[in-house]
Automatic annotation (TrEMBL):
EC number: 2.7.7.65
Organism encoding this protein: Silvibacterium bohemicum
Protein name: diguanylate cyclase
A GO molecular-function descriptor: diguanylate cyclase activity
Catalytic reactions on record: 2 GTP = 3',3'-c-di-GMP + 2 diphosphate
Keyword Cell cycle in annotation: no
Keywords: Membrane, Transmembrane, Transmembrane helix
Length: 397
């Protein structure tokens, strides 16, 4: 048995070295440092357990069981950091650790009783492993579902193993120490070690997946507003145009430009300008359907893609957006913001470039008409006019 435990210790050391190498070479990878700490604690407990029968029971039996509990707590911290969840009840875990330590001290040094020691340690370990599994299964990130579920099932398996050990200790109390374990205890050690290493590997996989997901989000979103950036928007628009041609649907674009925004930056500075951009983006987002796409198109420009629409309804939606921007209050330095909007609805012959050109032409028509207006490209050029009048037919709908 000592040789088998030595093999487990070597595997743990290799795993710890691998975690250290990953930390050095993959900056910003969440959770790995906690995994490394968890397995360092587990390795320390395993080395203490190998001291049987040369060391007192407290050092060679109780402290290794405390180390297993501590490793599970650290592993839960790793999961929460990886998923970017706030650590739940850290003081409760510390209090539970103190209770486990006290119980094992009593069962080892004061009143030696192996079965009670198993009851105390394995109950705490099972609860801790199940708490980690619950954190994983409650995650709603569908992009990481495979890695999350794999890690969650492995932690649930760890909890089940500890529950089985409690039942087995009730039916057949352990007669010998870890160096002379009976077959069930040997199997327990093997499966607990195997599932623990598997959970560690799975969590590192999850951490890489989370980092990839975050990098992809950074590549596709605007850092200031959290909206889609131009690249992501054009990809979504391309997919929508293909869908619209296939099913004969209309795709609308609303191009939005804040009026006199350069004056705001010049007069009040870029921090105030940034806050205005954030406030406007929040107002536009609140008035956009979930099926539509809103993006910051550059500088003070925003763009909205309206799915399955026609010129009238697209212009109506644009007018509501204009009113939302105009109604913003509580801006920094008492700034009053307005916006000019251009509307275009594509047909089966339109490409991204042609549809954007139509919306851009309509936007500049709004600028020429006096700003703070909505103009639709479908209106004949000589009759283009702002439709911001509250008595217009658009607002009556």
């Amino acid at each position: 048995m000592r040789h088998l435990l030595a093999g487990y210790a070597v595997v743990l050391m290799l795993f710890i070295i691998a975690c250290s190498a990953i930390e050095r070479n993959a900056a910003g990878l969440n959770g790995v440092r906690w995994v490394r700490r968890a397995f360092c604690v587990a390795l320390a407990g395993l080395l203490l357990a190998m001291c049987q029968p040369f060391a007192p029971a407290f050092f060679s039996a109780a402290l290794p069981q405390v180390s297993v509990f501590a490793a599970l707590v650290l592993f839960r911290f790793a999961v929460e950091e990886t998923l970017e969840h706030k650590t739940q009840h850290p003081y409760l875990s510390i209090a539970a650790g103190v209770a486990v330590f006290s119980g094992l001290l009593f069962c080892s040094a004061i009143h030696a009783h192996a079965r009670t020691r198993i009851y105390v340690s394995d109950t705490a370990d099972a609860i801790q492993a199940m708490m980690t599994a619950v954190v994983l299964f409650r995650s709603r990130n569908t992009a990481l579902r495979s890695a999350i579920r794999t890690t969650g099932y492995l932690m649930a398996a760890v909890a089940v193993i500890h529950i089985f050990r409690i039942v087995a200790a009730t039916v057949r109390p352990p007669q010998h120490g870890i160096m002379h374990a009976d077959p069930f205890q040997a199997y327990f050690i093997f499966f607990n070690f195997t599932f623990g290493i598997g959970a560690g590997l799975s969590l590192i996989w999850l951490s890489f997946c989370c980092q990839r997901d975050n990098l992809q989000a950074l590549a596709l979103t605007d850092g200031l507003t959290g909206l889609l950036n131009r690249r992501a928007f054009e990809e979504a628009l391309q997919r929508e145009l293909v869908y619209a041609r296939r099913y004969g649907k209309g795709t609308g674009l609303v191009l939005i430009d804040l009026d006199y925004f350069k004056r705001i930056n010049d007069a009040h500075g870029h921090p105030v300008g940034d806050e205005v951009i954030r406030r406007v983006s929040a107002a536009l987002q609140a008035g956009t359907r979930g099926s539509d796409a809103l993006a910051r198109f550059g500088g003070e420009e925003f763009i909205v893609m309206l799915r399955d629409t026609d010129p009238f309804h697209a212009s109506t939606a644009a007018e509501r957006m204009r009113m939302r921007v105009e109604a913003l209050r509580g801006m920094p330095a008492g700034i009053q913001v307005t916006a000019s909007l251009g509307v275009a609805v594509g047909d089966s012959s339109d490409t991204i470039e042609s549809l954007l050109k139509k919306a851009d032409d309509a936007l500049y028509a709004s600028k020429r008409a006096g700003r703070n207006a909505v103009t639709s490209h479908q209106t004949p050029a000589e009759n283009i006019a702002a439709i911001a009048d509250p008595q217009s037919e658009l607002l009556a709908t």
